[in-house]
Design brief:
By secondary structure, this protein is mainly beta. Helix content is about 5%, strand content about 50%. The model has no long low-confidence stretch (mean pLDDT about 90). The longest helix has 6 residues, at about 30-35. The chain has a single domain (about 15-130), classed as Jelly Rolls, CATH 2.60.120.10. It has one helix at about 30-35; strands spanning about 15, 25, 50-55, 60-65, 70-85, 90-95, 100-105, 110-125, 130.
Length: about 130
């Protein structure tokens, strides 16, 4: 089977990067997150999910990824990430296109939006945890 070449739009199609160098486009539709959380993509094996999001408001929750470091790349706008590490909170501001952050494996993190932002994530999603922000 031939690998699809594109073009793809990053907000409509995410990308699964597999451990053997595979790259599989995944259409983002109304059932995407249900399929993801229920094991609907288990046939792809472990890997990282490349996705983009637009943010206009602060995150309402924290998240953490025990399977590895998350890469967060600012495409446009400005936001501040808050990362729990070393017994405290570290704040990292991204305000120039192309700046990126490496979120350590298992570190809880959230974000505050300074200016409407578009962000690209490369996420080791297996076992991801969420908790409400207080």
């Amino acid at each position: 089977m031939a690998t699809p070449v594109g073009p793809f739009k990053a907000v409509d199609t995410y990308l699964h990067l597999g451990p053997e160098g595979t790259s599989v486009p995944l259409e983002v539709n109304e059932s995407f997150w249900q399929n993801l959380t229920s094991g609907g993509f288990a046939h792809l094996g472990p890997g990282r999910l490349v996705s983009t999001y637009d943010f206009s408001e602060d995150w309402t929750s924290w998240e953490q990824h025990p399977a590895g470091e998350e890469v967060v790349v600012l495409i446009s706008g400005a936001l501040e990430f808050v990362v729990e590490m070393d017994g405290g909170e570290r704040k990292v501001r991204l305000d120039q296109a192309g700046q990126f952050l490496l979120v350590p494996r298992g570190a809880w993190h959230t974000a505050n939006v300074d200016r409407e932002a578009k962000v690209l994530f490369i996420t080791p999603g297996e076992g991801t945890g969420h908790r409400q922000r207080e």
